[in-house]
Amino acid sequence: MGWSQLTWSWRALLLVVFFWGLISLSSAARLGASRQKFEVKKRLKRLNKPAVKTIQSPDGDIIDCVHISKQPAFDHPFLKDHKIQKRPNFHPEGLFDGNKVSETKEKSMPITQLWHVTGKCPEDTIPIRRTKEDDVLRASSIKRYGRKKHRTVPKPRSAQPDLINQSGHQHAIAYVEGDKYYGAKATINVWVPKIQQPNEFSLSQLWILGGSFGEDLNSIEAGWQVSPDLYGDNNTRLFTYWTSDAYQATGCYNLLCSGFIQVNSEIAMGASISPVSAYRNSQYDISILIWKDPKEGHWWMQFGNDYVLGYWPSFLFSYLADSASMIEWGGEVVNSEPEGQHTSTQMGSGHFPEEGFGKASYFRNIQVVDSSNNLKAPKSIGTFTEQSNCYDVQTGSNGDWGHYFYYGGPGKNPNCQ
Ligand SMILES: *[C@@H]1O[C@H](CO)[C@@H](O)[C@H](O)[C@H]1NC(C)=O
Ligand SMILES: *[C@@H]1O[C@H](CO)[C@@H](O)[C@H](O)[C@H]1NC(C)=O
């Protein structure tokens, strides 16, 4: 009677609830998917500025020539009324002549970027590597695209360079500290290290560091990197990075956020470098100079002898608004293998320093900029590596190369499991 009727209505009610749930779940999923699409679109629209001209690079990149006043930097609220400085007021001068052709066994060859073979950007534009939908989708989140993963920053140990200790990151570096630095320079050998996992990377760079190694670390970084997650391939690319809060909320790679103001129409941040060195064969290197303009206080970057790329405005930073307290040069890789195992991702050429020229990767002519805006050899250079059986570093100095070091290694090997 009433009992069975109740059961039926309950059953009907349950069915209704069930289908209603199903429908709302699937529409929520649809909503989520369209929301993500919307977020990706929004991000791409913000990153990819209208182009005056577009160049298709052989490596699959699209280079947009964007008018200099339309570049991502000017999305920054503090840069709304910024007057672009077309060139630095001062250039560091030093005894060491960077223009002198190095007297190594192989002559230095001019290095360019791959996209140059298919075109040039007009005057008053800057080349920007276009971000594609896939680039954003490969990131751990749309928000984190273009940024380093959040790092934990423990108290530094006094006997070591104050590296940010993130489990899995491995370094082989040379460093100076204990003074006020206004810039740094190096000529970096260029290779294509093999990457074991797409979420790992291998880079060779210099770090301009300011502040204690707490939550407010300031860093300006530049060099070359292979990073499948960031770029979708295994090419060696020119890159920069900056942060004023230890990689948390500020900063990014290249021009992937507003900050760096580019003035150069020939070099694209994040574009592939060509040619690259081969084992026991031709060697190629790039020079990078970063210095603080004594007049405006901006941090400028120069690539090679000819390309002044642009600057990081002083206001982006706290400590670096004054000077740097430490400079590091060298390699970094990510080891994403589970505890107790080591990645076979290579650093540098993938060979140990002992092998020397043509086999191991090097940094040469490492110099710092002093308070008088002079380039000079650093006083005492320290070295650091977490596991020298995996990646190592060896310094030296001579007349041709000034202060130099060989660095890198294969990662996983019988002595590094
Ligand atoms: C990094 O931190 C881990 C755990 O906190 C520690 O075991 C390791 O020795 C640290 N490495 C360096 C280089 O400080
Ligand atoms: C990058 O290199 C790895 C091997 O080192 C290879 O498995 C992977 O397919 C390459 N990725 C791309 C996008 O070419």
UniProtKB/TrEMBL annotation:
Tagged with keyword Metal-binding: no
Organism superkingdom: Eukaryota
Entry-linked InterPro entries: Glutamic_endopeptidase, Neprosin, Neprosin_propep
Neprosin PEP catalytic domain residues: 163-417
Ubl conjugation recorded as keyword: no
Signal peptide, first to last residue: 1-28
Pfam families associated with the record: Neprosin, Neprosin_AP
Keywords: Signal
Name of the protein in its database record: Neprosin PEP catalytic domain-containing protein
